[in-house]
Amino acid sequence: MGHRRILALTVSAAALLSAGQAFAQQFYIGLGAESGTNLTDWNPGGSPDLHVGSLSLASVLAGAKFDFGGPFYAGAEAETTLSINYTNDLNAFDGLTGLTRVRGIIGYDFGGFDLFAAAGVVQLSGNLDDHGAGASGMTYGVGINTSVGNNIDLRIEAIMDSATTNSPDAYTWDATSVRAAAIYKF
Hints:
This protein has 186 residues and is mainly beta.
């Protein structure tokens, strides 16, 4: 399934959910800090030419959560970086300047905490190869939210991004990271 189709389905689902008056909705904004590693294949068409990198970033996120009247919920979330630091073992092509994710989220509320899974699209901007290209692909995550007050949640999440550079060489860029975030609910 193409990235644009997944994005369209995510946005469509969020619009349908927000149109239903039987659903409780909750909007939120948050700040996150993320750290992880990535693996880049500089020769995706032939024998692997793998290189390891490290990634750390700070981000702002916003979303909407729709409660179905029971413990299950669904939602949509968008995120973009405030700052980003990316290096690799080549000490080259490490000019990553931004990361944006748009995801659909499903979860189960246990009462003081909830578990969730997310999937969507990721867009990387900056110089990730010798053509100065960014990358786009898929993002997946699993995590836990816990309430620390009426309007505040703390979140920990494992995230996997898998992208291909937007250049003729189509290098692959896979990152696994852990994010901690604080979320304010409206």
